[in-house]
Design goal:
Elements lengths: L1 H8 L2 H26 L5 H31 L5 H14 L4 H11 L5 H26 L4 H27 L1
Helix pairs in contact: 2-3, 2-4, 2-6, 2-7, 3-4, 3-5, 5-6, 6-7
Length: about 170
């Protein structure tokens, strides 16, 4: 409950940045999981691949935030600005909780890697759907506009997944 209150106390732009980064990392993790499902990999290889790609992406976004801040403001980010950038980047790692648990169970030989990757795919797609639903539900829209927004989010999400699979198979 305390964590939700802390998030609600953040300015809307900061909450939007955190959410945007989490969506981006969720799509990145989903692309990796889908690619791993197409290959015969061990649980350890899957864990390492997912960790390296997602952590690398989070660090790249953090560096991009710092560099763009320097370019626009002609100073290094300080205090609150740096905390905001860190919070946005670190908050995005929450997208890895369930896939990390599932793949960890495969590493421990409790699950097969195939089952862990399937469950991870489902969890990541469900997370994207939940984020989209929550956003549309909170928006000041009529019910039919919400349906259109949700439908559009689903279609665009499927297009992104399709493009990621297509790129992997080229």
């Amino acid at each position: 409950m305390e964590r939700k209150r802390e998030r609600d106390d953040l300015p809307p732009d900061e909450r939007a940045a955190i959410l945007k980064e989490r969506i981006y990392i969720t799509f990145t993790a989903l692309a990796v999981v889908l690619a791993l499902r197409a290959h015969a990999v061990s649980a350890g290889e899957a864990a390492l691949s997912l960790s390296v790609v997602v952590i690398g992406t989070v660090l790249a976004v953090f560096v991009a935030d710092v560099v763009s801040h320097i370019a626009v403001h002609e100073t290094l980010p300080e205090g609150g600005e740096l905390r905001h950038m860190s919070r946005v980047s670190i908050g995005a790692l929450g997208a890895l909780v369930l896939p990390g648990i599932f793949i960890g169970l495969a590493v421990a030989d409790v699950w097969t890697i195939e089952g862990a990757l399937r469950a991870s795919s489902i969890a990541l797609v469900a997370a994207l759907a939940a984020i989209g639903y929550a956003a549309a539900r909170r928006a000041r829209l009529s019910p039919w506009q919400r349906v259109i927004v949700l439908f559009g989010e689903v279609v665009l999400g499927l297009v992104v997944i399709g493009l990621e699979l297509l790129a992997h198979n080229l």
